[in-house]
Amino acid sequence: MVVPSLKLQDLIEEIRGAKTQAQEREVIQKECAHIRASFRDGDPLHRHRQLAKLLYVHMLGYPAHFGQMECLKLIASPRFTDKRVGYLGAMLLLDERQDAHLLITNSIKNDLNQGIQVVQGLALCTLSTVGSAEMCRDLATEVEKLLLQPGSYVRKKAVLTAVHMIRKVPELSNIFLPPCAQLLHERHHGILLGTITLITELCERSPAALKHFQKVVPQLVQILRTLVTTGYSTEHSISGVSDPFLQVQILRLLRILGQNHEESSETMNDLLAQVATNTDTSRNAGNAVLFETVLTIMDIRSATGLRVLAVNILGRFLLNSDKNIRYVALTSLLRMVQSDHSAVQRHRPTVVECLREVDASLSRRALELSLALVNSSNVRAMTQELQSFLESCSPDLRADCASGILLAAERFAPTKRWHIDTILRVLTTAGTHVRDDAVANLTQLIGGAQELHAYSVRRLYSALAEDISQQPLVQVAAWCIGEYGDLLLEGSCEETEPLQVEEEDVLALLEKVLQSHMSLPATRGYALTALMKLSTRLRGDNNRIRQVVSIYGSCLDMELQQRAVEYNTLFRKYDHMRAAILEKMPLVERGGTQDEEIKESKEAQLSEASLVPTEPQASELLDLLDLLDGTSGAAQPPPPLEPSPGDVLVHLLDLPCDLPSASPPPASIPNLRVFEREGLQLNLSFVRPPGTPALLLITITAINTSEADVIHFICQAAVPKSFQLQLQAPSGDTVPAHSGLPVTQLLRILNPNKAPLRLKLRLTYNHFGQSVQEIFEVNNLPMETWQ
Length: 787
Description:
Largest sheet: 5 strands, antiparallel
Number of helices: 35
Shape: elongated
């Protein structure tokens, strides 16, 4: 006998009336016991009521897996009330991870062939929700037949089911190509919207389907033109726009069909201009259609005037009061700035105004676009705006803003003096947020501008006297004072205000830097070296400098202590050589040739007497990537690399040495580009030292030609188990935009068996605000790398 239980309405009222969670659980447990008892007794008349209550319990988050088989029984029932609840239960309780969902395939197939529309609709909904790849293959023929049924109710659901099938099993596309061509003549908007979605899925997954549907572009253009020119329709209009959902979907399909296809793009040009000029922008529905129109114009081979119109639409979006629309406009303009730079430049004042937005996401997008708009003609005005923004922006944006200003100044600086002034202002405003190479770049810039040495040292001295908290600024100022301190004391610079500086003032300022708790060890090293160099540039007594240097001979910091001891030795034993040793630094040219890279790689090889075992990080990467084919068992470790006596001598003395070479110099190995995406390039250069033919040195060079920095850049490598890999630390984790200073990383690979070399590389980085991860194999390395 079936145990009496609550009705669904009474159960809902009792659960809602529970005052505590414990009371709710008690009610649900009691009712679930009744439901289980009813399922065991096999009451066919009330089974759908019990399952309905169980589905409500499931929606509250409680376990209801014991009702899965009851769903199958209800679906197989001839009664519609049973089928309705059974199909609903299948959609909620079953999924592809459970084998039980395959048991309803036959029931769905029978219901699809019944001819009863409401039952067919239930079966199609369930198939499009929980249909696995196997179910889609088995039922594709039945769904294809229903696409051409006379009733719009079934056809609409069949189209949506076909979309699900294509997403699950793309190879089924050939089955649905013929019906789609007929469904495009449909006047029912729901069916037409589903058909456009189905064609879009087919074109994205099948090149053959893309080529097939490029022939129907005129038909799609006519459908969209009809929507645009049709008057107000109560059934389909939203905020005065005729069926914006269908318009947006057609525009997306046209964008796919027009990419790299001249004829299709030409066919839709006039229509896109008509949509862009006739759509009402007072409501959000019109803005959505306009935005899709802009994206379509950007992606197809559109006319120049049409692209200018698209940029102007985005410019109007920037004036919209809705923050979401302004954000979309900034993001889209950033995509277009490379292809339509002059058109986007017309909206530069509006973009600069967006820098003052309170919303952090808007100001960040405006900053990225502003930096992309900088060129040689507007660099002065744009840099001034960006520097004003740098002074007031949030700390999260300061690093990106400072980095962008420095890169723009390096690329478009009209004069060296302006370049120096710009970097000094950035260092003064946000010195702690600049990139690591800012100090080296500025010192090199000042060193190469001989006519600005006096001007630079006086500007830096004044900035240092005002603030010693910005560490990069302090380091550059200390270096410059040490190199050109004599010019500071002469006071002969006509480009700055008169500044009377005494020797005691300079020494006191550097001592203040040394004693400040804000100074980093590297900054103290700069200051100590500057004091030492001033001992040859000042005309007074050097006793004060000697005392300061001697104090740091017992410093806890090893680097400072070593410098102080060496400088004390210069004073005591080699005072006659001090002036020559402490001469001004020669100008170092930026960038290096391939020969210099080879030399650096050889020096890195000479600096280690033997090959260090692979680091744990590399070992973990081997397991992580499950790399290549490696033989079973542990590989025998290769013998250590024995340096020749001449190599050790060169390393110890760190002096050039022309030792006779027993073997001829190795033949140059051609470089290899292994990766390129959105401006980021990865190149490999190879060196095989003559003394150790089993060793291969690979220098990975990352170059960024895009408009935005690549940040958090990590390159990891793995090789088969018969090789031994040592992955050294990279030169940095930021690849600057506009072909700035590249990031390099050295790989040392030992190949004792001279086996063909294969590499697997994994790149992780952030670019244009998105996190990217790429894993790829390099198996086309030159034969010279391993033979």
